[in-house]
Design goal:
This protein is of the alpha/beta class. It has 3 domains: 5-78, Winged helix-like DNA-binding domain superfamily/Winged helix DNA-binding domain (Arc Repressor Mutant, subunit A), CATH 1.10.10; 79-191 and 364-398, Nucleotidyltransferase, domain 5 (2-Layer Sandwich), CATH 3.30.420.40; 198-358, 2-Layer Sandwich (Nucleotidyltransferase, domain 5), CATH 3.30.420.40. Helix content is 39%, strand content 20%. It contains 13 helices and 16 strands. The protein has helices at residues 13-24, 29-36, 40-52, 118-131, 168-176, 185-196, 257-260, 262-271, 281-289, 293-317, 332-346, 364-375, 386-398, and strands at 27-28, 56-61, 71-75, 81-87, 91-98, 107-110, 137-144, 147-148, 155-158, 163-167, 180-184, 205-210, 214-220, 223-224, 321-325, 356-358. A 5-stranded mixed beta sheet has the order 6-5-4-7-11. It has a 5-stranded mixed beta sheet with strand order 14-13-12-15-16, covered by helices on one side. A hairpin with a 4-residue loop joins strand 9 and strand 10 (163-167). It is globular and about 70 Å long. The two termini are 23 Å apart. Belongs to the ROK (NagC/XylR) family.
Length: 405
C-alpha cells in the first residue's frame, strides 16, 4: 500500500500511524518508520505519545532474525469509531464500528423507502441511534443497493428502493452534523475487505455477492473502481441470453440476474413443483440440504451460469483473487459443483488457478462495510472520499496529539 507522504508531515503523522495499523494489523515501530519515512527516534517519540493517550497498545513480539524481538503495536478502540448504516427495502440496520474493526450491537429499524418523507424518517432514526453511542465518532458510512454519484455527495439512484435521485448525503449531513459517506452496498464490502479481509494481502480483487441479485465490487491497486458515474460492477446485468431471454428486474431480458437471482431460482422451483407458490429461498435450501435432486439441480445450474459469467469478469479485471459473499452464500455448497467446473473451464490457462474465497455471512457484514467507508479515509490517497473524507481525517487528527516532525 502506498502512503501519500504529504499526510505524514507535521501533526498528521499520528493519524497516518493509526491508519497503517488499522489497515495492516499489528505493526512494529521499525516497519512504521520505514513506511512513513521517518527516523526511528521520531517513531519512538510518536508511538510513546500515542500509547500514553490510549490510542494504541503494545501486543506480542514478532519473530526476529537476530537481536531483540520487535514489539508489535495494535489499535486501541478509543482511537475513534464510525457509524455503519445499511439501507434495505424494508429496514435500516445501524451499528457502531471501532477503528480496529470491532462491531458493536446492531440495531434494526423498520423502514419504508417509498414513503414521501423517507429521508426525513431515516435521519430521525439515525439521530436517535447515534445519540446512544459512546466515544468520539469520526463519521457515518451508508450502504445502499443502487448507484451513487460520489461518496462525498451521496446522490442515489436505487430502482429497488424507488429512488431515482435521492439526496441521501445532503439530507444526512444537514441533520446529523457529522461527515457522511454514501456508497453502493457491494462496494462497501470491497472496502471492508481492503481493511480487514483479503485486501490486506491482495491489492486487486473482486467481491461478488449472491442473493436477491448479483453484485460486484472491483478493487484495483488498493482502491475501489467506481467507473465514470459510480456504477461499475453491475455484473448482474451482463446479458447471457440474447433473444427472448427471461425478463430482468431492470426491464431488460436475458440478464444474469434473471437466471441466478433469488426471484429467478424461486420461479424455477415453483415451475418444477419443488416449491409451492408461497415457498421461499429458505424452503429451497432446506430441500437441497435434504437431498432433493430437483432443488440441488437448480443450484447447480445457477452455479454453472454464474461461473461462466465470472470467468468473463476475471478476464476483464485480472484480479488476484475472487471473494464470494452475500445473503445467498449459505447455499454455496450447492452452487459450488456447477460453479467450479464451468468457471475453471472457461478461464484462459494463466487464470485457471485463481483462488476464490467464500465468506460466511451475516447482516453485520453490510454494516461493517458501510462503516469502513469512514474508517478507510485516513489512508485514502486517491481522494475517493472527497470533502467528507477530509472532514473525517480532521476529526481523527483532533483525537491525536499534535507533534512536530
Amino acid at each position: 500500500m502506498a502512503y501519500d507522504m504529504a499526510i505524514t508531515r507535521g501533526g498528521l503523522v499520528p493519524s497516518a500511524i493509526l491508519a497503517i495499523i488499522g489497515s495492516r494489523g499489528p505493526t512494529s515501530r521499525a516497519d512504521l518508520a520505514r513506511l512513513l519515512d521517518v527516523s526511528s527516534a521520531t517513531m519512538t517519540q510518536l508511538t510513546k505519545t500515542l500509547l500514553a493517550r490510549g490510542l494504541i497498545v503494545e501486543l506480542e513480539t514478532s519473530p526476529s532474525q537476530g537481536g531483540r524481538p520487535a514489539r508489535l503495536l495494535g489499535l486501541a478502540r478509543s482511537a475513534g469509531s464510525a457509524v455503519g448504516v445499511k439501507i434495505t427495502a424494508d429496514h435500516v440496520a445501524v451499528v457502531q464500528v471501532e477503528l480496529d474493526g470491532s462491531v458493536g450491537t446492531p440495531q434494526l429499524f423498520d423502514f419504508d423507502p417509498t414513503r414521501p418523507d423517507c429521508l426525513d424518517h431515516l435521519a430521525h432514526v439515525l439521530e436517535g441511534a447515534i445519540a446512544e453511542m459512546d466515544g468520539p465518532l469520526l463519521g457515518v458510512g451508508v450502504g445502499v443497493p443502487g448507484s451513487v454519484d460520489a461518496q462525498d455527495s451521496g446522490i442515489v439512484q436505487a430502482p429497488t428502493l424507488g429512488w431515482p435521485d435521492a439526496q441521501v448525503g445532503p439530507m444526512l449531513r444537514a441533520r446529523l452534523g457529522l461527515p457522511v459517506l454514501v456508497e453502493n452496498d457491494v462496494n462497501t464490502l470491497a472496502v471492508a475487505d481492503r481493511l480487514y479481509g483479503a485486501g490486506q494481502r491482495h491489492s486487486t480483487y473482486i467481491v461478488v455477492t449472491i442473493g436477491r441479485g448479483i453484485g460486484c465490487g472491483v478493487v484495483v491497486d488498493g482502491s475501489v473502481y467506481r467507473g465514470a458515474y459510480g456504477g461499475a460492477g453491475e455484473i448482474g446485468h451482463i446479458p447471457i441470453v440474447y433473444d427472448d431471454g427471461d425478463l430482468c428486474g431492470c426491464g431488460s431480458r436475458g440478464c444474469l440476474e434473471a437466471y441466478v437471482g433469488e426471484d429467478a431460482m424461486l420461479r424455477s422451483a415453483r415451475r418444477d413443483g419443488i416449491l409451492s407458490s408461497s415457498g421461499t429461498t429458505t424452503d429451497l435450501l432446506t430441500a437441497a440440504d435434504a437431498g432433493h435432486e430437483g432443488a440441488q439441480a437448480i443450484y447447480r445450474r445457477a452455479g454453472r451460469t454464474l461461473g461462466a459469467a465470472l470467468s468473463g469478469v476475471v478476464h476483464t479485471v485480472d484480479p488476484e483473487v475472487v471473494v464470494l459473499s452475500g445473503e445467498g452464500i449459505t447455499a454455496w455448497p450447492h452452487w459450488e459443483p456447477g460453479f467450479q467446473e464451468v468457471f475453471r473451464r472457461h478461464l484462459l490457462p494463466r487464470w485457471r488457478s485463481i483462488p476464490f474465497l467464500v465468506h460466511t455471512w451475516d447482516e453485520s457484514k453490510w454494516m461493517l462495510g458501510a462503516a469502513s467507508l469512514v474508517l478507510a479515509t485516513p489512508f485514502d490517497t486517491v481522494g475517493v472520499g472527497g470533502s467528507q473524507g477530509r472532514l473525517v481525517r480532521d476529526r481523527l487528527q483532533d483525537n491525536t496529539p499534535k507533534v512536530s516532525v
